[in-house]
Please model this.
Amino acid sequence: MKLKEYQGKEIFRKYGINVPEGYVVSKPEEVKDDKAVLKAQVLEGSRKKKGLIIVSDNAKQDVEKLLGKCSEVLVEEMIQIEKESYLSFTIDRFEKCVKMLYAEEGGIDIEENPDKVKKLKVENVEDITLQGSLKNVATKLFKIMKDYDAELVEINPLAFTKEGLVAVDSKIIIDDNSLFRHLDLVENKVCLAEDRASMCGFNYVELDGNIAVIGNGAGLVMSTLDVINYYGGKPADFLDIGGGASSERMEEAMRLVLSRNPKVLLINIFGGITRCDEIAKAIVNYKKNNSINIPIIVRMIGTNQKQAQKLLNENCIVALESMEDCVKAAVEVVKND
Amino acid sequence: MINGAKVIVQGITGKQGRFHTKAMIEYGTNVVAGVTPGKGGEVVHGVNVYNSVKDALEEVEVDWSILFVPAKFAKEAAMEALQNGLNIVVITEGVPVHDEIEIVNFAKQKGLKVVGPNCPGLIVPGHTKLGIMPGDIFRKGNVAVVSRSGTLTYEVINQLTMNGIGQSMAVGIGGDPVIGMDFIDLLNYFENDDDTDKIVLIGEIGGDLEEHAAEFIAEGYKKKIVAYIAGVFAPEGKRMGHAGAIISGKHGTAKSKIEALEKVGVKVAKVPSEIVKLLQTEG
Model:
Protein backbone atom coordinates (compact mmCIF):
# COMPACT_ATOMS: atom_id res chain seq x y z
CA MET A 1 0.00 0.00 0.00
CA LYS A 2 1.44 3.33 -1.07
CA LEU A 3 1.09 6.24 1.32
CA LYS A 4 0.46 9.74 0.05
CA GLU A 5 3.22 12.29 0.46
CA TYR A 6 1.62 14.04 3.43
CA GLN A 7 0.92 10.74 5.20
CA GLY A 8 4.57 9.85 4.80
CA LYS A 9 5.65 13.24 6.06
CA GLU A 10 3.48 12.88 9.16
CA ILE A 11 5.41 9.71 9.93
CA PHE A 12 8.73 11.48 9.24
CA ARG A 13 7.74 14.27 11.64
CA LYS A 14 6.81 11.73 14.31
CA TYR A 15 10.29 10.20 14.04
CA GLY A 16 12.06 13.56 14.14
CA ILE A 17 12.96 13.92 10.47
CA ASN A 18 12.56 17.56 9.41
CA VAL A 19 9.92 18.29 6.76
CA PRO A 20 8.74 21.65 5.36
CA GLU A 21 5.89 23.34 7.25
CA GLY A 22 2.62 22.66 5.50
CA TYR A 23 -1.05 21.66 5.53
CA VAL A 24 -3.49 19.75 3.34
CA VAL A 25 -6.45 21.43 1.61
CA SER A 26 -9.38 20.07 -0.34
CA LYS A 27 -11.04 23.45 -1.09
CA PRO A 28 -9.39 26.62 -2.52
CA GLU A 29 -10.59 28.80 0.39
CA GLU A 30 -8.58 26.68 2.82
CA VAL A 31 -5.32 28.05 1.39
CA LYS A 32 -3.90 30.63 3.83
CA ASP A 33 -0.76 31.74 1.98
CA ASP A 34 0.04 33.45 -1.31
CA LYS A 35 3.56 32.18 -1.70
CA ALA A 36 3.67 28.40 -1.39
CA VAL A 37 4.57 25.14 -3.04
CA LEU A 38 1.40 23.33 -4.11
CA LYS A 39 1.67 19.56 -4.42
CA ALA A 40 -1.11 17.32 -5.72
CA GLN A 41 -1.54 14.34 -3.37
CA VAL A 42 -1.65 11.58 -5.95
CA LEU A 43 0.24 8.32 -5.82
CA GLU A 44 1.78 8.47 -9.29
CA GLY A 45 5.42 9.44 -9.80
CA SER A 46 7.05 12.24 -11.83
CA ARG A 47 4.59 14.82 -10.51
CA LYS A 48 6.85 17.73 -11.40
CA LYS A 49 7.08 16.64 -15.04
CA LYS A 50 3.29 16.20 -15.16
CA GLY A 51 2.61 19.68 -13.77
CA LEU A 52 1.20 18.34 -10.51
CA ILE A 53 3.56 20.47 -8.43
CA ILE A 54 3.33 24.27 -8.70
CA VAL A 55 5.73 26.74 -7.13
CA SER A 56 3.32 29.62 -6.74
CA ASP A 57 3.19 33.32 -5.85
CA ASN A 58 -0.56 33.19 -6.07
CA ALA A 59 -1.40 29.98 -4.26
CA LYS A 60 -5.07 30.79 -3.57
CA GLN A 61 -5.77 30.83 -7.31
CA ASP A 62 -3.24 28.30 -8.53
CA VAL A 63 -4.56 25.64 -6.16
CA GLU A 64 -7.69 25.35 -8.31
CA LYS A 65 -5.61 23.97 -11.17
CA LEU A 66 -4.57 21.06 -8.99
CA LEU A 67 -7.89 20.50 -7.21
CA GLY A 68 -9.37 19.86 -10.63
CA LYS A 69 -7.05 16.89 -10.95
CA CYS A 70 -7.07 15.46 -7.41
CA SER A 71 -8.96 15.79 -4.14
CA GLU A 72 -6.14 16.89 -1.82
CA VAL A 73 -3.31 19.39 -2.22
CA LEU A 74 -0.39 19.79 0.16
CA VAL A 75 0.43 23.50 0.68
CA GLU A 76 4.02 23.94 1.86
CA GLU A 77 6.47 26.70 2.68
CA MET A 78 9.21 27.31 0.13
CA ILE A 79 12.60 26.31 1.43
CA GLN A 80 16.06 27.40 0.28
CA ILE A 81 17.90 24.33 -0.86
CA GLU A 82 21.70 24.34 -0.99
CA LYS A 83 22.16 20.82 -2.28
CA GLU A 84 19.90 17.82 -2.99
CA SER A 85 20.72 14.25 -2.08
CA TYR A 86 18.89 10.91 -2.20
CA LEU A 87 18.27 8.44 0.60
CA SER A 88 16.14 5.31 0.74
CA PHE A 89 15.75 1.86 2.23
CA THR A 90 14.41 -0.98 0.14
CA ILE A 91 14.22 -4.79 0.07
CA ASP A 92 16.87 -6.63 -1.92
CA ARG A 93 15.06 -9.76 -3.07
CA PHE A 94 18.11 -11.59 -4.33
CA GLU A 95 20.25 -10.98 -1.26
CA LYS A 96 17.17 -11.31 0.98
CA CYS A 97 17.92 -8.28 3.12
CA VAL A 98 17.23 -4.56 3.62
CA LYS A 99 19.48 -2.26 1.62
CA MET A 100 20.20 1.42 2.12
CA LEU A 101 20.61 3.50 -1.04
CA TYR A 102 22.36 6.84 -0.83
CA ALA A 103 23.41 9.30 -3.51
CA GLU A 104 25.08 12.67 -2.92
CA GLU A 105 23.13 14.11 -5.82
CA GLY A 106 19.41 13.49 -5.67
CA GLY A 107 16.58 14.77 -7.77
CA ILE A 108 13.99 13.41 -10.09
CA ASP A 109 16.41 11.72 -12.49
CA ILE A 110 18.04 9.52 -9.88
CA GLU A 111 16.92 6.32 -11.67
CA GLU A 112 18.91 7.34 -14.72
CA ASN A 113 22.17 7.53 -12.77
CA PRO A 114 22.37 4.18 -10.97
CA ASP A 115 26.18 4.37 -10.81
CA LYS A 116 26.03 7.30 -8.41
CA VAL A 117 23.93 5.39 -5.89
CA LYS A 118 25.79 3.66 -3.07
CA LYS A 119 24.13 0.47 -1.84
CA LEU A 120 24.65 -0.99 1.59
CA LYS A 121 23.19 -4.02 3.35
CA VAL A 122 21.64 -2.94 6.66
CA GLU A 123 20.61 -5.47 9.28
CA ASN A 124 20.70 -3.05 12.21
CA VAL A 125 21.51 0.62 12.80
CA GLU A 126 25.22 -0.08 13.38
CA ASP A 127 25.49 -1.01 9.69
CA ILE A 128 24.67 2.56 8.61
CA THR A 129 28.09 3.98 7.78
CA LEU A 130 27.04 7.54 6.94
CA GLN A 131 28.34 10.39 9.09
CA GLY A 132 26.83 13.16 11.21
CA SER A 133 23.33 14.43 10.49
CA LEU A 134 23.00 12.12 7.48
CA LYS A 135 23.52 9.12 9.73
CA ASN A 136 20.95 10.56 12.10
CA VAL A 137 18.29 10.83 9.35
CA ALA A 138 19.20 7.42 7.93
CA THR A 139 18.87 5.81 11.35
CA LYS A 140 15.38 7.29 11.77
CA LEU A 141 14.38 6.25 8.27
CA PHE A 142 15.57 2.69 8.92
CA LYS A 143 13.43 2.62 12.08
CA ILE A 144 10.41 3.68 10.00
CA MET A 145 11.22 0.94 7.46
CA LYS A 146 11.11 -1.70 10.21
CA ASP A 147 8.32 -0.26 12.41
CA TYR A 148 5.93 0.20 9.47
CA ASP A 149 6.85 -3.03 7.63
CA ALA A 150 7.75 -0.96 4.59
CA GLU A 151 8.91 -2.31 1.24
CA LEU A 152 10.31 1.11 0.46
CA VAL A 153 10.95 4.35 2.35
CA GLU A 154 12.44 7.06 0.22
CA ILE A 155 13.43 10.71 0.61
CA ASN A 156 14.03 12.28 -2.78
CA PRO A 157 15.23 14.91 -2.53
CA LEU A 158 16.77 15.03 0.89
CA ALA A 159 17.73 18.70 0.98
CA PHE A 160 20.72 20.34 2.65
CA THR A 161 19.54 23.74 3.97
CA LYS A 162 20.82 26.35 6.39
CA GLU A 163 18.55 24.79 9.00
CA GLY A 164 19.91 21.30 8.37
CA LEU A 165 18.58 18.30 6.45
CA VAL A 166 14.96 18.47 5.25
CA ALA A 167 12.86 15.75 3.62
CA VAL A 168 11.27 17.64 0.73
CA ASP A 169 9.31 14.61 -0.49
CA SER A 170 8.28 11.28 1.00
CA LYS A 171 7.56 7.92 -0.52
CA ILE A 172 6.51 5.03 1.67
CA ILE A 173 5.17 1.69 0.45
CA ILE A 174 3.83 -0.59 3.18
CA ASP A 175 3.97 -4.35 2.60
CA ASP A 176 0.35 -5.40 2.00
CA ASN A 177 0.97 -8.70 3.79
CA SER A 178 1.74 -6.80 7.00
CA LEU A 179 -1.42 -4.67 7.09
CA PHE A 180 -2.84 -6.76 9.94
CA ARG A 181 -0.19 -5.05 12.07
CA HIS A 182 -1.11 -1.58 10.78
CA LEU A 183 -4.89 -1.44 10.80
CA ASP A 184 -4.81 2.28 11.62
CA LEU A 185 -3.37 2.92 8.16
CA VAL A 186 -5.95 0.78 6.37
CA GLU A 187 -8.93 2.80 7.55
CA ASN A 188 -7.66 5.78 5.61
CA LYS A 189 -7.48 3.74 2.44
CA VAL A 190 -9.24 4.96 -0.67
CA CYS A 191 -11.71 2.30 -1.74
CA LEU A 192 -11.10 1.39 -5.36
CA ALA A 193 -12.65 -1.55 -7.20
CA GLU A 194 -9.30 -3.32 -7.12
CA ASP A 195 -9.10 -2.88 -3.33
CA ARG A 196 -12.65 -4.11 -2.85
CA ALA A 197 -11.68 -7.19 -4.83
CA SER A 198 -8.71 -7.88 -2.60
CA MET A 199 -10.97 -7.61 0.44
CA CYS A 200 -13.18 -10.35 -1.05
CA GLY A 201 -10.09 -12.57 -1.13
CA PHE A 202 -9.15 -12.31 -4.75
CA ASN A 203 -6.57 -10.48 -6.79
CA TYR A 204 -7.96 -8.28 -9.50
CA VAL A 205 -6.47 -5.98 -12.10
CA GLU A 206 -8.52 -4.21 -14.78
CA LEU A 207 -7.19 -4.41 -18.34
CA ASP A 208 -8.54 -2.90 -21.55
CA GLY A 209 -9.49 -5.93 -23.68
CA ASN A 210 -12.83 -7.73 -24.14
CA ILE A 211 -12.13 -11.30 -22.96
CA ALA A 212 -12.97 -11.51 -19.26
CA VAL A 213 -10.76 -13.95 -17.37
CA ILE A 214 -11.25 -15.73 -14.06
CA GLY A 215 -8.78 -18.33 -12.85
CA ASN A 216 -7.15 -19.74 -9.74
CA GLY A 217 -3.54 -18.97 -8.93
CA ALA A 218 -1.59 -15.90 -9.99
CA GLY A 219 0.83 -17.75 -12.25
CA LEU A 220 -1.89 -19.66 -14.07
CA VAL A 221 -3.97 -16.52 -14.65
CA MET A 222 -0.93 -14.54 -15.85
CA SER A 223 -0.14 -17.40 -18.21
CA THR A 224 -3.77 -17.43 -19.43
CA LEU A 225 -3.49 -13.73 -20.29
CA ASP A 226 -0.26 -14.40 -22.19
CA VAL A 227 -1.80 -17.27 -24.15
CA ILE A 228 -4.80 -15.05 -25.03
CA ASN A 229 -2.42 -12.39 -26.35
CA TYR A 230 -0.39 -15.07 -28.14
CA TYR A 231 -3.48 -16.15 -30.09
CA GLY A 232 -4.40 -12.56 -30.93
CA GLY A 233 -7.00 -11.79 -28.24
CA LYS A 234 -7.10 -9.06 -25.57
CA PRO A 235 -7.93 -9.86 -21.94
CA ALA A 236 -10.33 -7.56 -20.05
CA ASP A 237 -8.91 -8.32 -16.62
CA PHE A 238 -6.68 -10.39 -14.40
CA LEU A 239 -8.75 -12.11 -11.72
CA ASP A 240 -7.25 -14.75 -9.46
CA ILE A 241 -9.88 -16.16 -7.09
CA GLY A 242 -7.11 -17.43 -4.80
CA GLY A 243 -6.81 -20.88 -3.25
CA GLY A 244 -9.81 -22.88 -2.05
CA ALA A 245 -12.46 -20.43 -3.25
CA SER A 246 -16.08 -21.00 -2.17
CA SER A 247 -18.94 -20.82 -4.67
CA GLU A 248 -19.95 -17.46 -3.14
CA ARG A 249 -16.52 -16.02 -3.83
CA MET A 250 -16.66 -17.34 -7.39
CA GLU A 251 -20.09 -15.74 -7.97
CA GLU A 252 -18.73 -12.47 -6.62
CA ALA A 253 -15.84 -12.74 -9.09
CA MET A 254 -18.25 -13.34 -11.99
CA ARG A 255 -20.35 -10.34 -10.97
CA LEU A 256 -17.26 -8.15 -10.89
CA VAL A 257 -15.82 -9.07 -14.31
CA LEU A 258 -19.21 -9.20 -16.06
CA SER A 259 -20.09 -5.70 -14.80
CA ARG A 260 -17.57 -4.36 -17.30
CA ASN A 261 -19.44 -5.82 -20.30
CA PRO A 262 -16.88 -8.14 -21.86
CA LYS A 263 -17.61 -10.07 -25.08
CA VAL A 264 -16.81 -13.49 -23.65
CA LEU A 265 -15.95 -14.97 -20.25
CA LEU A 266 -13.10 -17.47 -19.94
CA ILE A 267 -12.86 -19.47 -16.72
CA ASN A 268 -9.64 -21.42 -16.18
CA ILE A 269 -9.51 -23.60 -13.06
CA PHE A 270 -6.85 -26.12 -12.14
CA GLY A 271 -8.19 -27.57 -8.93
CA GLY A 272 -5.71 -28.35 -6.19
CA ILE A 273 -6.90 -26.75 -2.98
CA THR A 274 -9.73 -25.33 -5.08
CA ARG A 275 -12.58 -27.78 -5.68
CA CYS A 276 -13.94 -27.80 -9.23
CA ASP A 277 -17.48 -28.70 -8.09
CA GLU A 278 -17.66 -25.55 -5.93
CA ILE A 279 -16.72 -23.44 -8.92
CA ALA A 280 -19.17 -25.30 -11.20
CA LYS A 281 -21.94 -24.73 -8.65
CA ALA A 282 -21.22 -20.99 -8.73
CA ILE A 283 -21.29 -20.83 -12.52
CA VAL A 284 -24.61 -22.69 -12.70
CA ASN A 285 -26.14 -20.58 -9.92
CA TYR A 286 -24.98 -17.33 -11.39
CA LYS A 287 -26.33 -18.27 -14.81
CA LYS A 288 -29.72 -19.19 -13.32
CA ASN A 289 -30.10 -15.95 -11.38
CA ASN A 290 -28.68 -13.48 -13.88
CA SER A 291 -29.21 -13.05 -17.57
CA ILE A 292 -25.88 -13.60 -19.25
CA ASN A 293 -25.89 -12.83 -22.95
CA ILE A 294 -22.27 -13.62 -23.70
CA PRO A 295 -20.63 -17.04 -24.14
CA ILE A 296 -18.92 -18.60 -21.13
CA ILE A 297 -16.00 -20.87 -21.89
CA VAL A 298 -14.93 -23.12 -19.04
CA ARG A 299 -11.74 -25.05 -18.54
CA MET A 300 -11.88 -27.22 -15.47
CA ILE A 301 -9.49 -29.89 -14.34
CA GLY A 302 -8.22 -31.31 -11.05
CA THR A 303 -9.88 -31.88 -7.67
CA ASN A 304 -13.53 -33.08 -8.04
CA GLN A 305 -13.42 -32.57 -11.80
CA LYS A 306 -15.97 -35.32 -12.54
CA GLN A 307 -18.68 -33.93 -10.25
CA ALA A 308 -18.07 -30.49 -11.74
CA GLN A 309 -18.38 -31.70 -15.30
CA LYS A 310 -21.60 -33.54 -14.55
CA LEU A 311 -23.10 -30.42 -13.01
CA LEU A 312 -22.03 -28.25 -15.91
CA ASN A 313 -23.27 -30.74 -18.54
CA GLU A 314 -26.69 -30.94 -16.89
CA ASN A 315 -26.91 -27.18 -17.26
CA CYS A 316 -25.69 -27.07 -20.85
CA ILE A 317 -22.30 -25.58 -20.09
CA VAL A 318 -19.36 -27.22 -21.84
CA ALA A 319 -16.07 -27.58 -20.00
CA LEU A 320 -12.90 -28.32 -21.93
CA GLU A 321 -9.74 -29.87 -20.49
CA SER A 322 -7.10 -27.93 -22.36
CA MET A 323 -6.37 -24.33 -21.49
CA GLU A 324 -5.11 -23.53 -24.96
CA ASP A 325 -8.24 -24.94 -26.64
CA CYS A 326 -10.34 -22.71 -24.40
CA VAL A 327 -8.29 -19.66 -25.23
CA LYS A 328 -8.55 -20.36 -28.96
CA ALA A 329 -12.33 -20.69 -28.60
CA ALA A 330 -12.57 -17.40 -26.69
CA VAL A 331 -10.47 -15.56 -29.25
CA GLU A 332 -12.67 -17.03 -32.01
CA VAL A 333 -15.80 -15.61 -30.32
CA VAL A 334 -14.35 -12.13 -30.25
CA LYS A 335 -13.14 -12.33 -33.84
CA ASN A 336 -16.61 -13.26 -35.11
CA ASP A 337 -18.17 -10.40 -33.20
CA MET B 1 16.56 -34.04 -0.35
CA ILE B 2 13.25 -35.26 1.10
CA ASN B 3 13.26 -38.99 0.30
CA GLY B 4 12.52 -40.92 3.46
CA ALA B 5 12.28 -37.68 5.45
CA LYS B 6 10.57 -37.72 8.83
CA VAL B 7 8.10 -34.89 8.78
CA ILE B 8 6.07 -32.90 11.29
CA VAL B 9 3.10 -30.71 10.39
CA GLN B 10 2.87 -27.36 12.21
CA GLY B 11 -0.72 -26.14 12.23
CA ILE B 12 -2.00 -29.71 11.84
CA THR B 13 -5.36 -29.08 13.54
CA GLY B 14 -6.50 -26.36 11.11
CA LYS B 15 -8.67 -27.12 8.07
CA GLN B 16 -5.78 -27.04 5.57
CA GLY B 17 -3.42 -28.80 7.97
CA ARG B 18 -5.83 -31.70 8.46
CA PHE B 19 -6.71 -32.06 4.78
CA HIS B 20 -3.14 -32.05 3.54
CA THR B 21 -1.80 -34.24 6.34
CA LYS B 22 -4.19 -36.91 5.10
CA ALA B 23 -3.19 -36.35 1.47
CA MET B 24 0.54 -36.46 2.31
CA ILE B 25 0.20 -39.69 4.32
CA GLU B 26 -1.79 -41.27 1.48
CA TYR B 27 0.97 -40.28 -0.92
CA GLY B 28 3.54 -42.08 1.23
CA THR B 29 5.07 -39.23 3.24
CA ASN B 30 6.33 -40.24 6.68
CA VAL B 31 4.40 -37.83 8.92
CA VAL B 32 5.65 -38.53 12.45
CA ALA B 33 3.95 -35.80 14.49
CA GLY B 34 1.86 -32.65 14.43
CA VAL B 35 2.17 -29.40 16.36
CA THR B 36 -0.48 -26.89 17.38
CA PRO B 37 0.00 -24.84 20.57
CA GLY B 38 -2.76 -25.71 23.04
CA LYS B 39 -3.91 -28.81 21.13
CA GLY B 40 -1.33 -31.27 22.50
CA GLY B 41 -2.78 -34.74 23.05
CA GLU B 42 -5.13 -34.67 20.07
CA VAL B 43 -4.74 -37.14 17.22
CA VAL B 44 -5.19 -36.13 13.56
CA HIS B 45 -5.40 -38.95 10.99
CA GLY B 46 -3.46 -41.18 13.36
CA VAL B 47 -0.78 -38.55 13.98
CA ASN B 48 -0.06 -37.42 17.55
CA VAL B 49 -0.33 -33.68 18.15
CA TYR B 50 2.08 -31.80 20.47
CA ASN B 51 2.01 -28.29 21.94
CA SER B 52 5.43 -27.38 20.62
CA VAL B 53 8.14 -28.58 18.25
CA LYS B 54 10.35 -29.22 21.27
CA ASP B 55 7.70 -31.48 22.85
CA ALA B 56 7.41 -33.43 19.60
CA LEU B 57 11.18 -33.82 19.34
CA GLU B 58 11.29 -35.44 22.77
CA GLU B 59 9.16 -38.27 21.36
CA VAL B 60 10.18 -38.60 17.69
CA GLU B 61 13.05 -37.90 15.30
CA VAL B 62 12.30 -35.24 12.69
CA ASP B 63 14.04 -33.83 9.55
CA TRP B 64 11.49 -31.45 8.03
CA SER B 65 8.53 -29.42 9.19
CA ILE B 66 5.74 -28.24 6.90
CA LEU B 67 3.83 -25.16 8.07
CA PHE B 68 0.10 -24.50 7.63
CA VAL B 69 0.20 -21.73 10.23
CA PRO B 70 -1.72 -18.45 9.65
CA ALA B 71 0.44 -15.58 8.40
CA LYS B 72 0.24 -13.71 11.71
CA PHE B 73 1.96 -16.56 13.55
CA ALA B 74 4.09 -17.94 10.73
CA LYS B 75 7.33 -16.25 11.82
CA GLU B 76 7.09 -17.54 15.36
CA ALA B 77 6.35 -21.07 14.18
CA ALA B 78 9.10 -21.03 11.55
CA MET B 79 11.68 -19.75 14.04
CA GLU B 80 10.67 -22.48 16.50
CA ALA B 81 11.26 -25.19 13.89
CA LEU B 82 14.59 -23.68 12.81
CA GLN B 83 15.69 -23.22 16.42
CA ASN B 84 15.20 -26.96 16.81
CA GLY B 85 17.27 -27.79 13.75
CA LEU B 86 14.50 -28.59 11.24
CA ASN B 87 14.32 -27.71 7.55
CA ILE B 88 11.00 -26.07 6.76
CA VAL B 89 8.39 -25.76 4.01
CA VAL B 90 6.17 -22.72 4.55
CA ILE B 91 2.88 -23.09 2.66
CA THR B 92 1.33 -20.01 4.30
CA GLU B 93 0.33 -17.14 2.03
CA GLY B 94 0.61 -13.52 3.17
CA VAL B 95 3.68 -13.59 5.41
CA PRO B 96 5.06 -10.03 5.89
CA VAL B 97 8.28 -9.48 3.98
CA HIS B 98 10.29 -8.36 7.02
CA ASP B 99 9.30 -11.63 8.75
CA GLU B 100 10.48 -13.53 5.69
CA ILE B 101 13.85 -11.78 5.84
CA GLU B 102 14.27 -12.83 9.48
CA ILE B 103 13.26 -16.43 8.80
CA VAL B 104 15.48 -16.85 5.76
CA ASN B 105 18.56 -15.27 7.36
CA PHE B 106 18.19 -17.26 10.55
CA ALA B 107 17.96 -20.49 8.51
CA LYS B 108 21.10 -19.50 6.63
CA GLN B 109 22.98 -18.99 9.90
CA LYS B 110 21.86 -22.42 11.08
CA GLY B 111 22.62 -24.11 7.74
CA LEU B 112 18.99 -25.17 7.27
CA LYS B 113 16.70 -25.16 4.23
CA VAL B 114 13.57 -23.03 3.78
CA VAL B 115 11.12 -23.64 0.92
CA GLY B 116 8.56 -20.83 0.47
CA PRO B 117 6.70 -19.02 1.96
CA ASN B 118 3.57 -18.86 -0.21
CA CYS B 119 4.42 -22.02 -2.11
CA PRO B 120 2.90 -25.40 -3.02
CA GLY B 121 5.86 -27.26 -1.50
CA LEU B 122 7.96 -30.02 -3.02
CA ILE B 123 7.37 -33.54 -4.25
CA VAL B 124 9.38 -36.54 -5.34
CA PRO B 125 6.81 -38.38 -7.50
CA GLY B 126 6.06 -41.88 -6.34
CA HIS B 127 7.87 -41.28 -3.02
CA THR B 128 7.28 -38.28 -0.84
CA LYS B 129 5.10 -35.21 -0.97
CA LEU B 130 5.82 -32.25 1.27
CA GLY B 131 3.17 -29.91 -0.01
CA ILE B 132 -0.35 -29.29 -1.26
CA MET B 133 -0.10 -30.28 -4.92
CA PRO B 134 -2.58 -32.83 -6.31
CA GLY B 135 -0.40 -35.96 -6.19
CA ASP B 136 -2.16 -37.85 -8.98
CA ILE B 137 -0.99 -35.58 -11.82
CA PHE B 138 2.68 -36.48 -11.20
CA ARG B 139 4.57 -39.42 -12.74
CA LYS B 140 8.01 -40.72 -11.82
CA GLY B 141 10.66 -39.73 -14.35
CA ASN B 142 13.78 -37.70 -15.04
CA VAL B 143 12.66 -34.09 -15.50
CA ALA B 144 12.94 -31.77 -12.51
CA VAL B 145 10.57 -28.80 -12.32
CA VAL B 146 11.23 -25.63 -10.34
CA SER B 147 8.66 -22.83 -10.27
CA ARG B 148 7.62 -19.61 -8.53
CA SER B 149 3.96 -20.48 -9.02
CA GLY B 150 1.45 -23.06 -7.78
CA THR B 151 -1.35 -23.83 -10.19
CA LEU B 152 0.81 -22.94 -13.20
CA THR B 153 3.16 -25.70 -12.02
CA TYR B 154 0.23 -28.13 -11.99
CA GLU B 155 -0.61 -27.01 -15.51
CA VAL B 156 2.91 -27.75 -16.73
CA ILE B 157 3.21 -31.04 -14.79
CA ASN B 158 -0.11 -32.19 -16.23
CA GLN B 159 1.10 -31.54 -19.76
CA LEU B 160 4.38 -33.34 -19.09
CA THR B 161 2.62 -36.37 -17.63
CA MET B 162 0.03 -36.52 -20.42
CA ASN B 163 2.88 -36.55 -22.93
CA GLY B 164 4.72 -39.35 -21.15
CA ILE B 165 7.36 -37.18 -19.50
CA GLY B 166 7.83 -38.10 -15.83
CA GLN B 167 9.37 -35.97 -13.11
CA SER B 168 12.26 -36.60 -10.71
CA MET B 169 11.18 -33.79 -8.42
CA ALA B 170 9.04 -30.66 -8.49
CA VAL B 171 9.58 -27.66 -6.24
CA GLY B 172 7.41 -24.57 -5.92
CA ILE B 173 9.76 -21.97 -4.46
CA GLY B 174 6.99 -19.45 -3.77
CA GLY B 175 5.66 -16.22 -5.16
CA ASP B 176 6.80 -13.74 -2.52
CA PRO B 177 9.54 -11.12 -2.85
CA VAL B 178 11.76 -12.83 -0.28
CA ILE B 179 11.88 -16.63 -0.30
CA GLY B 180 14.17 -19.35 1.01
CA MET B 181 15.59 -21.70 -1.65
CA ASP B 182 15.67 -19.98 -5.03
CA PHE B 183 16.33 -21.01 -8.62
CA ILE B 184 20.10 -21.12 -8.15
CA ASP B 185 19.92 -23.33 -5.03
CA LEU B 186 17.73 -25.82 -6.87
CA LEU B 187 19.62 -25.73 -10.17
CA ASN B 188 22.69 -26.54 -8.11
CA TYR B 189 20.92 -29.46 -6.47
CA PHE B 190 19.50 -30.82 -9.75
CA GLU B 191 22.89 -30.64 -11.47
CA ASN B 192 24.25 -33.16 -8.98
CA ASP B 193 21.08 -35.24 -8.74
CA ASP B 194 21.48 -38.57 -10.58
CA ASP B 195 17.72 -38.93 -11.04
CA THR B 196 17.46 -35.66 -12.99
CA ASP B 197 18.37 -35.40 -16.70
CA LYS B 198 16.61 -32.19 -17.70
CA ILE B 199 15.11 -29.23 -15.89
CA VAL B 200 12.03 -27.08 -16.45
CA LEU B 201 12.29 -23.61 -14.90
CA ILE B 202 9.02 -21.68 -14.55
CA GLY B 203 9.46 -18.02 -13.74
CA GLU B 204 7.23 -14.99 -13.71
CA ILE B 205 7.43 -11.21 -13.73
CA GLY B 206 8.88 -9.31 -10.77
CA GLY B 207 12.27 -9.34 -9.10
CA ASP B 208 15.42 -10.62 -10.73
CA LEU B 209 15.72 -14.26 -9.65
CA GLU B 210 15.51 -15.45 -13.27
CA GLU B 211 18.24 -13.04 -14.37
CA HIS B 212 20.49 -14.24 -11.56
CA ALA B 213 19.70 -17.84 -12.53
CA ALA B 214 20.81 -17.00 -16.08
CA GLU B 215 24.14 -15.66 -14.76
CA PHE B 216 24.56 -18.88 -12.81
CA ILE B 217 23.76 -21.01 -15.88
CA ALA B 218 26.31 -19.03 -17.90
CA GLU B 219 29.07 -20.31 -15.63
CA GLY B 220 28.68 -23.69 -17.38
CA TYR B 221 25.58 -25.66 -16.43
CA LYS B 222 25.79 -29.34 -17.29
CA LYS B 223 22.12 -30.25 -17.87
CA LYS B 224 19.48 -29.10 -20.35
CA ILE B 225 17.08 -26.42 -19.11
CA VAL B 226 13.79 -25.38 -20.69
CA ALA B 227 12.09 -22.29 -19.29
CA TYR B 228 8.70 -20.60 -19.35
CA ILE B 229 8.01 -17.09 -18.02
CA ALA B 230 4.49 -15.96 -17.14
CA GLY B 231 3.39 -12.34 -17.35
CA VAL B 232 4.63 -11.27 -20.80
CA PHE B 233 1.57 -9.04 -21.14
CA ALA B 234 1.28 -7.91 -17.52
CA PRO B 235 0.93 -4.12 -17.11
CA GLU B 236 3.55 -2.12 -15.24
CA GLY B 237 2.98 -1.22 -11.60
CA LYS B 238 0.14 -3.70 -11.01
CA ARG B 239 0.58 -6.51 -8.54
CA MET B 240 -0.47 -9.64 -10.45
CA GLY B 241 -1.66 -11.74 -7.54
CA HIS B 242 1.66 -12.79 -6.08
CA ALA B 243 3.27 -10.22 -3.82
CA GLY B 244 6.42 -10.66 -5.85
CA ALA B 245 4.82 -10.38 -9.29
CA ILE B 246 5.01 -6.71 -10.07
CA ILE B 247 6.87 -4.83 -12.76
CA SER B 248 8.44 -1.60 -11.52
CA GLY B 249 9.95 0.60 -14.22
CA LYS B 250 12.39 -1.35 -16.32
CA HIS B 251 12.77 -4.00 -13.65
CA GLY B 252 11.13 -7.38 -13.48
CA THR B 253 9.70 -7.60 -17.00
CA ALA B 254 9.18 -10.95 -18.71
CA LYS B 255 11.15 -9.63 -21.67
CA SER B 256 14.30 -9.05 -19.60
CA LYS B 257 14.02 -12.53 -18.08
CA ILE B 258 13.42 -14.26 -21.41
CA GLU B 259 16.33 -12.40 -23.02
CA ALA B 260 18.67 -13.21 -20.11
CA LEU B 261 17.80 -16.92 -20.29
CA GLU B 262 17.95 -17.18 -24.08
CA LYS B 263 21.32 -15.44 -24.10
CA VAL B 264 22.81 -18.27 -22.03
CA GLY B 265 21.33 -20.95 -24.29
CA VAL B 266 18.12 -21.77 -22.41
CA LYS B 267 15.15 -22.47 -24.69
CA VAL B 268 12.13 -20.47 -23.54
CA ALA B 269 8.60 -21.71 -24.36
CA LYS B 270 6.07 -19.10 -25.55
CA VAL B 271 3.06 -21.04 -24.27
CA PRO B 272 2.99 -23.84 -21.69
CA SER B 273 2.35 -26.57 -24.29
CA GLU B 274 5.61 -25.68 -26.03
CA ILE B 275 7.61 -26.84 -22.99
CA VAL B 276 6.92 -30.47 -23.97
CA LYS B 277 8.18 -29.88 -27.53
CA LEU B 278 11.33 -28.12 -26.33
CA LEU B 279 12.12 -30.96 -23.92
CA GLN B 280 11.72 -33.50 -26.72
CA THR B 281 13.94 -31.71 -29.24
CA GLU B 282 17.64 -32.47 -29.21
CA GLY B 283 20.25 -29.98 -28.01
Observations:
- Chain A touches chain B through 48 residues (CB under 8 Å).
- The mean pLDDT of chain A is 91.
